[in-house]
Design a protein that fits this description.
The protein folds into three domains: about 1-80, Alpha Horseshoe (Serine Threonine Protein Phosphatase 5, Tetratricopeptide repeat); about 95-195, Alpha Horseshoe (Serine Threonine Protein Phosphatase 5, Tetratricopeptide repeat), CATH 1.25.40.10; about 195-245, no CATH class. About 70% of the residues lie in helices and about 0% in strands. The protein contains 13 helices and no strands. The chain has helices at about 30-40, 45-60, 60-75, 80-90, 95-110, 110-125, 130-140, 145-160, 165-175, 180-190, 200-210, 215-225, 230-240.
Length: about 250
Amino acid sequence: MKCRNCGKDINDDFLFCPYCGMPTREDSPEYYTRRGAELRRRGKVRDALEHCKKAAELHKDPYIFRSVGELAYMVGNLNEAIENYNKSLELLPDFPDTLYSLGIALFRKGLIKRAIEVFGRCLQVNPDFSMAYYWLGHSYYHTGRIDKAIENFHKLLEHSPQSKIAHYHLGIAYHSKGEEDKAFEHFKKLEEEGVEYASLFFHMGNVLYRLHKLTDAVNYLKKAVKINPDEERARRLLARITEPPEV
């Protein structure tokens, strides 16, 4: 017979192809799991998802359910992703990778309070899971708990000092509290590290405007508009500062 994966001739009694390692029986979870992995590598995510779902029907395994969750997330099916991450966690409750993935799916679905609980569990199991601090901070920010957001963005920096995104979100969070000096400090660190994008310069200009440092504010707002002429926030604030109101 021929291997359905690589097409080479093999003996009829072989359970696995000696050339590519693919199981020869299509009614086995190993076949669907390996075939799903191969399809995923080739970018055929929906086909990979269907194969992994068949594997999950044949064998209740936490890693197979996790794969189904990942693939469902990739194609935008958040409900199916969450369902399968939960099935995986029923079998392997404290696997931080799955908790992290579940938290992101919950966040994207708008279930942010639930996401906070899950990211918290992830960090209890693995306190060094640095990006979980980012998502936990992001989640707290969107529920209005700014101090908790700031706390977790700082923890992200402790675990990953090179994380530029932490400085950006700390700047946003401090600005939302009216602590403009601290906000500018974190935005400035990004600029010093060579980050140049319009939204950063807009926020720097906005903070300086609120600190009544108008000349510096204008300079940053002009930088924002130069990088992105469609940065309307910077254009409006620049006009407010530089164009006198009509009498």
